[in-house]
Amino acid sequence: MTAILGVNAYHGDAAACIVVDGTLIAAAEEERFRRIKHWAGVPTQAIRYCLREAGVEWKDVRVIASNRDPKANLLRKAIFTLSRRPGFDLVRDRLKNALRVRDLKSALETELGPAAADITRVEHHRAHLASAFFVSPFDDAALLSVDGFGDFVSTMTAEGRGADNRVFDKVAFPHSLGLFYTAVTQYLGFPKYGDEYKVMGLAPYGEPTHLRQMEDIAQLGPGGTFRLNLDYFLHHSEGVAMTWDGGEPAMGRAFSDKFAETFGPVRRPDEPLEDRHRDLAASLQAMYEKAFFHLLNHLHERTRNPRLCLAGGCAMNSVANGKIFDHTPFRDVYIQPAAGDAGGALGAAYDAHHRLLGQPRGFVMKHAYWGPQFSTEEIEKTLQGSPGPYRHELIENTPALVRKTAEAIRDGKVVGWFQGRMEWGPRALGNRSIVVDPRRADMKDVLNARIKRREPFRPFAPSILLERTGEYFETSYPDPFMIKVYKVRPEKRATIPAVTHVDGSGRLQTVSREENPLYWELIREFDRLTGVPVILNTSFNENEPIVCTPREALECFLRTKMDVLVAGDFFLSKDARNA
Predict the structure, then answer these.
(1) Range name among 95-109, 367-381, 539-553 with the lowest pLDDT average
(2) Cα separations (Å) of 409 from 7, 339, 462?
(3) Is 61 in contact with 117 (CB distance < 8 Å)?
(4) I need a labelling partner for 44 at 20 to 30 A (CA). Which of 155, 187, 402, 579 fits?
(5) How far apart are CA 546 and CA 511, in angstroms?
(6) CA dihedral 130, 134, 137, 139 (to 10 degrees)
(7) How far is the C-alpha of 286 from the C-alpha of 77, rounded, in Å?
(8) CA 136, CA 141: separation in Å to the nearest integer?
(9) What are phi and psi of 16, to 5 degrees?
(10) In degrees, to the nearest 5, what angle opens at C-alpha 531 toward C-alphas 527 and 534?
(11) Can you give the pTM of this predicted structure?
């Protein structure tokens, strides 16, 4: 038995996975155990879970693969330092983080005991590329990784063939589409780590009236390249403070005063959104897409390969992803569900399996369910230890449980759906979900008032039976990981208003009977009752990481105005007098 542990440490979305004899056994983000969003540090709890799930002792792990290599791109780093003479704070912070990464084995041994394996370091973007290609269904494909920065690089293009990939080009620090998106996100008053998705949701409410100015900030060049106008940024000169020590990551201001000189005063988080903010969000998204398709079209021209694998934090831009078929020649696209930095753990493990150990490919990630699961006995024990204002019944007949749940959704109930193994990646995909009726136009407001308390411009997502996708969406290409946005067919928008965004789009999840039979049955039963093979699916949480355990699900159910919780075979409903 050959066990490889993949780790993303000392960065946002710390995570771990374990691969045994080439097959992924378990994968999870540390935030789910620590209960702190985007938790950064050493993912010891995720590691312990992965070892338990695989039945592997720590001492028996053969390879520990990290998705960071401080020795990568040293020449580029030296040239930048000599030519730019960046501020002391920037150099100090980067050296400090590099030292932590180099000392990862000591940190692991402090928590887990002596390790037989050494750390195998995989360059950040090579790990991203591996995370997409080596678990994809493609024998060969064009590869693209785009994010903020990792190992002094923001973008990497390559082509994968069999158990190897050949890197073409890199875009090095200080130029980055991810940093560009982050800087404008901060300027618009969304300063938290990972807030970029909020601006993506805001963009359809505006018009790209500032696109010409954005073209001056992110400048496209020949051969698919791009450069930032550094007058608008601080990261290359003064540096941007970053906190990766453990806990919620934090990132300092990345934009310079020139943003305010060009676009007006910086929006504070507590200030109302104005039309100029909406237009800037639309302009940002339009410029990102222009640069993204510039990269992709050049990559296709170079490879002539119709298959594409995407990774990196920017691969979570589902709006751009959904337009790939319309704006590039690519005809097949694979993006694994944890495409951001968490997925670097997966990529590091598979890079080690193929490139270090020389093993052939054989695994395809068809679903995202790689986290913890809980038995009927464990769920029952949680319920017995937590009496409350609810009634519960055990329904061991699956069709009866599904029908009762579908009826609750049809009747306008807000339902927590806690089943099977937890999802890998940031999306709830039918195992740790809140599910409601998409036909009700007011359901978005109901969810926000009762549970989510989100900004009103942020959309909710539809889960649809795979075989019915083309009836409701203009693009029918499968997306089991909810990572692409497609246009809802005009004639169906009034049928599912709660999951149709202001621009007529929806970030869909296609659900197949093969990969999640229980969730598929639930949607099919809802279709039998209503004639609509779609349900609204949002993450099972309340301004916290998605729930992992039955206790967390029960606590969320009790402290919010959720009506029903279906945990395994248990159906819980609140006493209306006490809810």
Answers:
(1) 95-109
(2) 39, 31, 14
(3) yes
(4) 155
(5) 20
(6) 100
(7) 31
(8) 9
(9) -145, 155
(10) 50
(11) 0.95
**For 100, left (φ over 0), alpha (ψ -120 to 50), or beta?**
alpha
3-class state of residue 326 by DSSP: helix
CA-to-CA separations, 333 to 129, 305, 317, 461, 568, in angstroms, rounded? 13, 11, 14, 20, 33
Sign (positive/negative) of CA torsion 399, 400, 401, 402? Answer: positive
CB atoms within 10 A of CB 211: 16
Cα separation, 309 vs 566, in Å, equals 36
Please tell me the distance from the alpha carbon of residue 492 to that of residue 113, in angstroms, as a whole number.
Answer: 57
Query: Residue 219: which H helix or E strand, with range?
Result: strand 218-220
Query: Containing H/E element for 463?
Result: strand 461-465
Mean per-residue pLDDT, 228-247: 89
Q: What is the CA radius of gyration of the chain?
A: 23
Exposure of 448 by Cβ count < 10 A (0-12 exposed, 13-18 middle, 19+ buried)? middle
3-state secondary structure at position 386: coil
Residue 536 token pair: 């609204």
The single residue listed with the structure tokens 């992803």 is 321
Residue owning tokens 């395809």: 364
Helix/strand/coil for 358: coil
Q: Number of helices (H) and strands (E), helices first, in the chain?
A: 20, 24
Beta strands in 36-178 (DSSP E): 63-66, 119-121, 140-150, 153-161, 164-172
What three-state secondary structure class fits 382?
helix
- At 408-467, the pLDDT tens digits run 999 999 999 999 999 999 999 999 999 999 999 999 999 999 998 889 999 999 999 999
| AA identity, residue 160 | G
Element (H, E) at 296: helix 275-303
> Rounded to an integer, what distance in angstroms lies between the CA atom of residue 324 and that of residue 222?
20
Q: Minimal CA–CA distance to 330: which of 357, 302, 352, 349?
A: 302
Evaluated on CA atoms 235, 240, 246, 248, the torsion sign reads negative
Q: Which domains are present in the chain?
A: 3-129+339-356 (3.30.420.40), 171-334 (3.30.420.40), 376-574 (3.90.870.20)
Residue 101 is given by DSSP the state H
Alpha helices in 322-457 (DSSP H): 324-327, 343-351, 376-384, 398-410, 443-447
Question: Which two three-digit tokens encode residue 439?
Answer: 């036909």
Q: What single-letter DSSP state applies at residue 181? A: H
To 10 degrees, what angle do helices 398-410 and 517-530 make? 50
Q: Contact, 41 vs 244, CB < 8 A?
A: yes
* Residue 38 CA to its chain's centroid (Å): 10
User: Residue 87's pLDDT is what?
Assistant: 57
CB 18 within 8 A of CB 50: yes
Whole-number Å distance between alpha carbons of 127 and 121: 9
